[in-house]
Design goal:
- The protein is mainly beta.
- The chain folds into seven domains: 11-129, Immunoglobulin-like, CATH 2.60.40; 133-239, Immunoglobulin-like (Sandwich); 241-347, Immunoglobulin-like (Sandwich), CATH 2.60.40.60; 354-451, Sandwich (Immunoglobulin-like); 459-561, Immunoglobulin-like; 569-674, Cadherins (Immunoglobulin-like, Sandwich); 754-812 and 819-880 and 889-933 and 948-964, no CATH class.
- The protein has nine helices and 56 strands.
- The protein has a five-stranded mixed beta sheet with strand order 1-2-8-7-4. A five-stranded mixed beta sheet has the order 48-51-52-45-53.
- The longest helix is centred in the C-terminal third of the chain and has 39 residues, at 696-734.
- The chain starts with a helix and ends in a 94-residue tail after the last helix.
Length: 964
């Protein structure tokens, strides 16, 4: 089986090769801009046709990438195919010329070759060459021919024609008749070059001698090798019927519209016979060699001779039909006569154009430049003339147009830039219209999707976001969500969110908030504290997944809302180790006497920091009251004899939050008959005496402090006594001049005493002591000062000084001075105040008042003013009275109040105690030394410092008071 198939394939190949060599047709030729090849029919699959890659000048290695292919109509059989590896055109399936081209003549296969990048279209015609693969055949294997014995010599009897589907020389070429003595054969040629045979009577017949004659008719074609077909002819010799029918004319020609319905009369044939009776009755029929296709389309009425249309005819399939009709009488030995009828079909515009869409580049990129080829469109109209001329167009509302490349071939190209975000898909209506009457058209729709390009950056729904988060939030809680849109699609529209790098109070922003990269939900990573951070902003970025990626940023403002999470804090008085602050109140105090001020701060803001004060507990509620806004503790009435000497108060501070938070402070007031003459530190009374007495550490501290104080005082007394004794010896040796002021009256200081002492003190005559200050050193003369203490000095640590003696004139003793005197040098340069007592601003506690955090600034400004005024204590008084450089110059130290009387009192926030800042002291009679009358602050509880150093408690003393 395999050997037989191989042998047959080899024979076909050799025959095809021989045929191609003889005709010389395989060489490609360019005709009308086309390539044309010839290939014999009946080649098997894979047979070589042509090398298109070489003939078209294409790079064989790029054929696959450029999608080199044959474009054919939908449903059409693909007889030929292209090998993309080598560009060879080969036979895809068996080509039967007789099947592909029913009509004779040249059989062509029209191929459209398409190659992309860039788009090129080629037209190739492949002529299918006929091979002699069919032998002539007769309709019947045996044919009966009746011939009257009276037939004359030379009478012709048409014979059935043999049929051969092959064309040209491969079709029926001639006929042969087997040798006999009565008949000969004569071959005739029709107008279409087809052959038919007629039997010619060569010898008279005699029915009585031989009633039948048998001959063999052979039909031969002209192919190589020659093929033949045979039919047996039985000649029956009949009795004489000497007249035959005669047609009006031997050939007829009629025209018939191709859309004629079945039953339409094609032609009325008429034949006459001179005989009478049955010999003159004529019957019509198709001749024996009428093709089957003719018998399917037409019908001949036997009696009337009418030729009727039996089936639909198609001009596009065959425009001409040739019919052979015979007529014979019904007599014995009837002789049939033949006529030819040519039926010309008239073309009717009955075929609408056919549109074949071949997509090339779909979807098309939205950034494709104008002129980009989208598809190749072919149109075909099977009609002829104007009925077959076709125009093609697209709807005007799309950015596409048709450009004609070859006849009935168009390319669909873009006319402008596309935007997928505006129109993601185009439904292009293509209208093909012929020129017939009436006009027929075909509407075809091509869907062209637009492929997305990442040409749109994400866009946030809001230009910025403001988020309000309550403080003390739970870590990990969602605080807000940002959202962005990207008009692109698929990967180009997939957005991921991120937070831009940055720092918040020195910490990376990623430690405060995070964001879900897919949903845009933002989460707080830590619990926020309004008191530490009130607001911050971050940059959120939305980036798509396109290439290259596009992004957009948006600012998210995060505001932390205050929550009442901080209770008020008592800053004055401040309890220490369970003790309560104490204060002395004179029993003589009248109503409205300011006992002290309770000060508190609240770290919250707004209503949460609005503080109110109330007296929660008291020994006697009728005796004291607390100002609800300022916290000032005042007396409501005068003290009575039956009032307790110790009054215990509990003051509550409450903020305005919801729910309100509060703090309490306990105060212990001691009612005394008279206030002490000197300021002493307020002691703190423990709430439980048992605890204080039972603490050995406290006892040890008290014993140690007492021993040290006693030793220090003893050392001072000894040094003072020794110094006074030395001064007296000096006074006795030299004496003191009355105009000069020394520690010893009437004595004069020696040079040794001036070198060894900077301060000498001696009592003056009378009841008032004089103060002499003689400073060694070169320069102007020395000065004497008499320090007089008024009533204010008895109630305060400050000594108010005034000059006690007239200035000493150096001119009187200038000649008697044997050694230089040491005088007080007064510098004219104003030195900067000593700021060592003030802590740095970074170490000062930032407290918030009960009104708002902005009040802290006012408190700081008030404290700054106090500091500046306090610095005037160390400022020379040259602004008030400049020391003259003359001989009578007097330098008198003047101590004016730190706060003049015209300065208004500060508000209640002045009572805030800030550790490390100077403490303002109140006098014993309730008058504030700094100018605030009848006000005392609990900030002084246990914290007052002595600001003066004094030598004696007399009314007038000699003082060396260094303010630092």
């Amino acid at each position: 089986m395999g050997a037989g198939a191989g042998s047959r394939r080899e024979q076909l190949f050799l025959r095809s090769l021989l045929f191609l060599l003889l005709t010389g047709s395989p060489a490609p030729r360019l005709a009308s801009g086309q390539l044309r090849y010839a290939v014999p029919e009946e080649l098997e699959h894979g047979a070589f046709v042509a090398n298109l890659g070489e003939d078209l000048g294409l790079d064989v290695s790029t054929l696959s990438a450029r999608r080199f292919r044959i474009v054919s109509r939908a449903g059409a059989r693909q007889h030929l195919e292209v090998n993309l590896e080598n560009g060879i055109l080969f036979v895809n399936e068996r080509i039967d010329r007789e099947e592909v081209c029913e009509a004779g003549g040249t059989c062509l296969l029209h191929l459209q070759l398409l190659v992309e990048s860039p788009l090129e279209l080629y037209r190739v015609e492949v002529e299918v060459l006929d091979i002699n693969d069919h032998a002539p055949t007769f309709p019947w294997q045996e044919y009966v021919l009746e011939v009257a014995e009276s037939a004359v010599l030379g009478a012709r009897f048409p014979l059935e024609s043999a049929q051969d589907p092959d064309v040209g020389t491969n079709s029926v070429h001639t006929y042969r008749l087997s040798p006999n003595s009565f008949f000969s054969l004569e071959v005739q040629t029709r107008s279409d070059t087809s052959k038919f045979a007629e039997l010619v009577l060569e010898r008279a017949l005699d029915r009585e001698q031989q009633r039948t004659h048998r001959v063999l008719l052979t039909a031969l074609d002209g192919g190589v090798p020659e093929r033949s077909g045979t039919a047996h002819i039985l000649v029956m010799v009949l009795d004489a019927n000497d007249n035959v029918p005669v047609f009006d004319q031997p050939s007829y020609s009629v025209s018939l519209p191709e859309d004629a319905p079945p039953g339409t009369l094609v032609i009325q044939l008429n034949a006459t016979d001179l005989d009478e009776g049955p010999n003159g009755e004529i019957e019509y029929s198709f001749s024996g060699h009428a093709p089957p296709r003719v018998r399917e389309l037409f019908h001949v009425e036997p009696r009337s001779g009418q030729v009727l249309l039996k089936g639909p005819v198609d001009y596009e399939r065959a425009s001409l039909h040739e019919l052979y009709v015979q007529a014979k009488d019904r007599g014995p030995s009837a002789v049939a006569v033949h006529c030819r009828v040519l039926v010309h079909l008239l073309d009717v515009n009955d075929n609408a154009p056919e549109v074949t869409l071949t997509s090339v580049s779909t979807p098309v990129l939205e950034d494709a430049p104008p002129g980009t080829v989208i598809a190749v469109i072919s149109v075909l109209d099977r009609d002829s003339g104007d009925n077959g001329r076709v125009s093609c167009e697209v709807s005007p509302d799309v950015p596409f147009e048709l450009r004609s490349s070859f006849r009935n071939y168009y390319t669909l190209v873009t006319t402008q830039a596309l935007d997928r975000e505006v129109v993601p898909e185009y439904n292009i209506s293509i209208t093909a219209r012929d020129m017939g009457s009436p006009t027929l058209l075909t509407l075809s729709t091509l869907t062209v999707p637009v492929s997305d390009v990442n040409d749109n950056a994400p866009r946030f729904l809001q230009p910025s976001y403001s988020v309000y988060v309550m403080e003390n939030n739970a870590p990990g809680a969602s605080i807000c969500s940002v959202s962005a849109l990207d008009p692109d699609c698929q990967q180009n529209a997939y957005l991921s969110y991120s937070i831009a790098d940055g720092h918040i109070h020195g910490m990376p922003v990623g430690t405060y908030v995070s964001i879900n990269s897919d949903s845009g939900h933002m989460y707080a990573l830590r619990s926020l504290d309004y008191e530490q951070i009130r607001s911050f902003q971050i940059q959120v970025q939305a980036q798509d997944a396109g290439f290259p990626p596009l992004s957009a940023n948006v600012t998210v403002h995060i505001f932390v809302l205050d929550q009442n999470d901080n209770a008020p804090v008592i800053v004055s008085p401040m309890p220490h180790n369970g003790s309560v602050a104490t204060e002395l109140v004179p029993r003589s105090a009248g109503p409205g006497y300011l006992v002290g001020t309770v000060s508190a701060v609240d770290a919250d803001t707004g209503l949460n920091s609005r503080l109110s004060y109330q007296l929660l507990q008291a020994t006697d509620f009728t005796l004291f009251s607390v100002a609800p806004d300022t916290g000032e503790l005042r007396t409501l009435r005068s003290f009575l004899e039956q009032d307790a000497t110790r009054q215990r108060l509990v003051v509550q501070v409450r903020d305005g939050g919801q729910p309100a938070l509060s703090a309490t402070v306990s105060l212990l007031l001691s009612v005394v008959e008279t206030m002490p003459q000197t300021l002493s530190d307020f002691s703190e009374f423990s709430l439980s005496p048992e605890d204080s007495s039972s603490s050995p550490l406290t006892v040890y501290l008290l014993v140690s402090l007492g021993s040290i104080s006693f030793t220090f005082l003893l050392a001072i007394l000894i040094l003072t006594a020794i110094r006074c004794r030395g001064e007296r010896r000096l006074c006795r040796g030299d004496g003191c001049s009355p105009p000069r002021c020394h520690c010893c009256p009437g004595s004069r200081p020696s040079s040794e005493s001036l070198k060894t002492s900077n301060l000498t003190a001696q009592p003056l005559t009378g009841t008032m002591a004089a103060t002499c200050l003689d400073v060694p050193g070169g320069g102007p003369p020395g000065y004497c000062y008499k320090v007089c203490l008024g009533p204010e000095s008895a109630q305060s640590d400050f000594m108010f000084l005034k000059p006690c003696s007239p200035p000493w004139n150096n001119e009187k003793d200038s000649g008697k001075q044997s050694r230089p005197s040491q005088h007080l040098q007064v510098s004219k340069q104003i030195k900067q105040p000593n700021m060592d007592w003030l802590p740095p601003s970074t170490q000062r506690p930032a407290l918030k008042s009960s009104q708002s955090l902005e009040d802290v600034g006012e408190i700081r400004r008030a404290l700054q003013k106090e500091h500046e005024r306090l610095c005037t204590l160390v400022t020379p008084v040259s602004e008030f009275q400049k020391a003259s450089a003359g001989t009578n110059s007097i330098w008198t130290p003047q101590y004016s109040p730190l706060y003049p009387g015209h300065i208004p009192a500060l508000d209640y926030q002045h009572n805030v105690y800030i550790p490390g800042t100077p403490t303002l002291l109140s006098s014993k009679d309730g008058s504030l030394f700094l100018g605030r009358e009848n006000k005392n602050s609990f900030s002084t509880f246990g914290k007052r410092k002595k600001m003066t150093a004094y030598c004696d408690m007399h009314d007038s003393v000699v003082i060396n008071n260094d303010l630092k």
